[in-house]
Amino acid sequence: MGARLTGYTSTGGLHPEEAKGLRIASSLLLGEEPPTKSDVVRTINAKGYRTSRGSEWRTSVLMRTLLHPRMAGLDEDGNPIEGHDESVLTVDEYNQLTERYGATPEDEEQATPRPAYDYLATNGLSLCDQCRYAMVGARVTGDADPSYRCPPPAEGRASCGRVRMTADRLETAVGEQVAAELLRPGVREQLAQLQEDIRDEVSRLRAHVQGADQRFAELGDMYGRGLLVKAAFLAAQQATKQDLKETRVRLRLLEQVAELDLGQVTDVVAWWNSAPQTSRRALVGLVAEVVYVLPSGHGPHDPHERINILWRTAS
Ligand SMILES: [Zn+2]
User: Fold this and answer.
1) From the CA of 118, how far away is ligand 1's center (Å)?
2) How far does residue 10's CA lie from ligand 1's centre (Å)?
3) Of 113, 78, 82, which Cα lies nearest the Cα of 98?
């Protein structure tokens, strides 16, 4: 049995206590005048944080764990893992850690990994217009530009796999349309109410996630009492797991939307150009229900013709 990666449970969800320790270590290491790695290790050990094996941290183990791509929900190639739950670190934090601590003289034959791309509108915020499956972030080859693509069809997934758009074109077009939408009369006034609605949805989704244990227990109980045959039990269990995973991903986005503070923003375009990707994503999630991505037609393309945004602010 392989060792579990600290920060995540064996089923891939976030391990809140371990994640907290790793996040503290990461913040210390990314500070203005960071303490030494051994100081960081001493600090988190003293606070009682342990590895997934229950051991005290050692410097090499901590750095190997923090520099593992899955800390930011990425695969070995730096692409986001489809449907990954909440991550221990953001892509931005992971990139900063890799830049500062990734390449050491003793492993210089190993190339420094290229910074991972932090996608604006994955995790259900953009959907393929053809098949309505969520677009995923991927590079076609190692040195290709980051792009959005409809996932190829697979067992249990009837996606078309035919729509693709580079991240730069898609995100620039989304940014321009979001800025234009905010300039429409009356839209800014709606944002506070929208945020209020989203806070309600966050509470509802949190309750739904918390009820998952009970739903699993009820299924087990029905199976135990012979009310479900094994195949039906397994299918229902799988559906409940999938639902939980999707709810967690949605919840993470909406939590960021609920926390977004636009109070001081006067020039939306300037704000967009300088805001961190997390804040931009939250703004898109606030004004837009979803971004549909259309297949490319023929001839020269205007990226605006490739996207169709369903606004929350439509009325
Ligand atoms: Zn599709």
Assistant:
1) 22
2) 31
3) 113
Question: How much distance in Å is there from the Cα of 160 to the middle of ligand 1?
Answer: 4
CATH of the domain at 76: 3.90.1750.20
151 shares a domain with 91: no
Q: How far is the CA of 292 from the centre of ligand 1 (A)?
A: 10
CA atoms within 13 A on the CB side of 113: 20
Q: What is the mean pLDDT of residues 258-262?
A: 89
Tell me: do 122 and 103 sit in the same domain: no
pTM exceeding the 0.85 threshold for the entire prediction:
no
Please indicate, yes or no, whether residues 185 and 281 belong to a single structural domain of this protein. Answer: yes
Q: What angle do CA 153, 159, 163 make, to 5 degrees?
A: 100
85 and 188 share one domain: no
Tell me which of 82, 107, 132 is where a domain ends. 107
Instruction: Count the domains in the chain.
Output: 2
What tokens appear for 298 in the block?
């023929």
How do residues 266-303 score in pLDDT, each as one tens digit? 888 899 999 989 899 999 999 999 999 999 876 567 89
* 185 lies in the same domain as 64: no
All residues with CB under 5 Å from ion ligand 1: 128, 130-131, 150, 159-160
Region 175-194: mean pLDDT is 91
Average pLDDT score over the chain: 89
